[in-house]
Amino acid sequence: MSRLTHVTSGPYAPPAAARELTVRSADGAPLHVEVHGPDDAPAVVLAHGWTCSTAFWAAQIRELALDHRVVAYDQRGHGRTPASPACSTDALADDLEAVLTATLAPGEQAVIAGHSMGGMTVMAAAARPAFRAHTAAVLLCSTGSSRLVAESTVLPIRPGRTRTRLTGMVLGSRAPLGPVTPPARRILKYATMGPASAPHMVEACAHIVHACPRAVRHAWSHVLDALELDHHLAELRVPVEIVAGTADRLTPPVHARALAAALPDCLGVTELPGIGHMTPVEAPGLVTGKIRALAAAHIHSVPAVEESA
C-alpha cells in the first residue's frame, strides 16, 4: 500500500524542473515554485486545486515545456509548500502575486491556468496590480466563484439544506484518507472523476490527493465552504476561457455557465461530456491545447533574457 506523493512513471509522472526556487508571499510564507522549459519562451503559470500539488499538472508541463516557460507552484500546505495558519482567498491572491513577481520579468505577461481552487485563486487576485501587469489571458478549469457546497452533487440526494449540510460534513471531514487502496481509488473516482476515467488517471490523482495532510485539507475546506468571489469577476478583465466536465460532482457545469455570464471578456465555455472534476488529468490534450492557443493569441512579445555578468 503505497504512500507515494505522485506516480513515478507514465504520462502523469512529474518531469524534473529546470530550476526550483522558494518565493516569499506578502506575509513571509514560503512557496515552493518550479520552472520548466526555455527561459526565452512565452510564459505559462499553473495554479493547482484543493488537495493537489504541482504534480497534478504533469501532463501539461511535459508538453508545454517543449516551447514555453512553465511556472508551477504549490499552494499553501500542499506539495512542498509548508502549511500556514493563513487560509483565505486573500492569502491565495497574495501567493499568486508573489509568484508572478518573482518569476516574470517587468512587463512580461503569461497565460495563467487555474484548476478548482487554483481558478478561485485567479478570481481572488483579479484586481491585484501584479496580476493585471503580468496576465495576458486565463484558462479556468473546473471551478466556481460561490455556492460550492450547495451546488455539489457528490451526495446523490435532492438539492436543499439537508444535502448542503451533509456535503459540508463530508468535504470538511478530518478523517485521514490513508494509503491508496482499491476502495480508496473507487471513492476518489466517484467523487472527483468521470465514470470512464482510465485506471492510470485514477491512480495518479489518488496519490496526489492522499498526499495532502488532513489538517490542510480540513482548513481549506472551510475556505471553500464559505467562498464568495462573485464580486471579483467584473475585475477579471483579461480574455478568459472556461473548461468544465459534465460529470463533475464538485463543481458542476452550472458554475462554468455562471462564470461565463459574469466575466467581462469570456471567450467561451467548453463542456466535456462524461469528464469529471479533474479535467487537466482526464482531458490532458484538450487542456494543454487550450493553454497553448491562449498563449499564441495573447502573448505578443517575450522580454529578452539578460545574460549574467
UniProtKB/TrEMBL annotation:
InterPro entries (alphabetical): AB_hydrolase, AB_hydrolase_1, AB_hydrolase_fold
UniProt GO MF annotations: hydrolase activity
UniProtKB keywords: Hydrolase
Residues spanning the membrane: none
Pfam families for this protein: Abhydrolase_6 (PF12697)
Keyword Transmembrane listed: no
Ranges of residues in domain AB hydrolase-1: 44-285
Superkingdom classification of source: Bacteria
SUPFAM superfamilies per UniProt: alpha/beta-Hydrolases (SSF53474)
Protein name: Alpha/beta hydrolase
Organism: Streptomyces edwardsiae
